[in-house]
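name: query_chain
kind: protein
chains: 1
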Amino acid sequence: MTEILTLPVEPKSVVWNPTPEQLRRFTEEMPNCRKTEFGNVNVATKVVSRSKGSTYVATDTPEQHSDQTISRAEYERMAKLQNDYIRTRDMLVVDGFIGNDPQFRVAARLIMEKANANIAGMQQHLYYPATPAELENFEPTVTVIYTPNLKAEGYPDERLIAVDLENFITRVFNSDYFGESKKGGLRMWNKIVYERGGLALHAGCKVIPVDGVNKVGLIVGLSGTGKTTTTFTKQNNSQPVQDDFCALMPGGKVYATENGCFAKTFGLNPKDEPTIFDACASPHAYLENVSQSDDGKIDYFDTSYTPNGRAVIRMDDVAGAFDAREVNNVDFLLILNRNENIIPAVAKLEGPLAAAYFMLGETKGTSAGGAAEAGKSLRVPGTNPFFPLLHAFQGNRMLELMKQSPMDVYLMNTGRIGGDDKDERSKKVKIQHSSAVVKAIAEGTIKWEKDPDFGYLVATEVPGIDDADYLQPKKMYERQGRGEEYQQLVEKYNSDRRAYLRKWKGLSEEIVNAI
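structure:
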């Protein structure tokens, strides 16, 4: 009973820090859970993507946040509703750490309905574990209280993610999508990192050996742009460090967050993504909304239920993973943009222009952001939809960090050149092209020249890419008799980008004037 009183809620019953075996058993009791051919579990959820439109920061100073807010009084009303509900429910408590560096890790707790034990099992994989001694007196810095079966009447889709940054508590109502647990903790961690003088990046991290030296790369991008794929593809026996969020601190120091990753599984195959494919076949993996036949056969190409199939995999099941505590300072940053027309496979960004493109956060939306974003052109500052403060802070802090500890910054198109997939004149930027780019960046073998239209550097030569159309789209358009179309796109992009940067109050003039 003493333990229950340490919680901010009073459950009907509570299982404290169940073992992985217990959580797996609880998950297999769920009616929407099936065993797969790999011996792991696959849960079909009602909600298949994160609920941005139902996410609110609780504050009485909404001008201090770029995203939508609710008042403190309204938050307290909804908290009471959830607390009353939990008194009638069996709950699970999972404790652990966001990050594994003793100097930087953040104690985190998930309080979850036992009826949705898969979410607790997935989150346990992603937390770095606490020792038995640490669990005896565990005091969380951030807490997620999660009731997937409680409706939030009056909110979009009767769903609510209420973020209390003053007390570092996030309350989730009426979503059984695991991403709300994962992002719930990381969103609050974003604020902690910022207050410590750094910047939380929606980024993967990898280490690439080059002539006996480990080159450290960060890869930022919205979900579905190829961030995980780029992180896990191999160049020179590279090693993945982190899949989704990293802290970039003054001096270029990088800290990790998660002991696994939440990977999109659409199109997953052993040829293109062997590391992720093998980890998803581990009996320890948790699958979510992946197509499965009655006999347990997995089909990563079938999207009839949702194109946003996912899997939580452990770093222990990732071949050759690199311990984040051993990572040196960052050498280069890749900004992913799933574009469909005139962005080259790679461009080099220098000075404030790098911070400007970071702030632009351009891409094409995918199913990860829900049906409202899929297929649409998006701009999300820093490609980070989870930064809970004013977005201008991201751009300004990034410019500040780049000046303190210079790094090479690149724009990478992971989409197409010359049009969408219905245009026969267009070309897909394949995984092999992106991998060649990353290898060449690490090795310093790309030859560059200035692009007069956008001010960045475009490649004249990239080892492993023989088709120049991927490197200089302007020449491709001109060769196809589409020079006028190209110039119209240039004018539109430059105009729209300038207007977008100007809309963020408080953003550095160096960044605003860089485009």
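note: The two ends are 60 Å apart (CA to CA).
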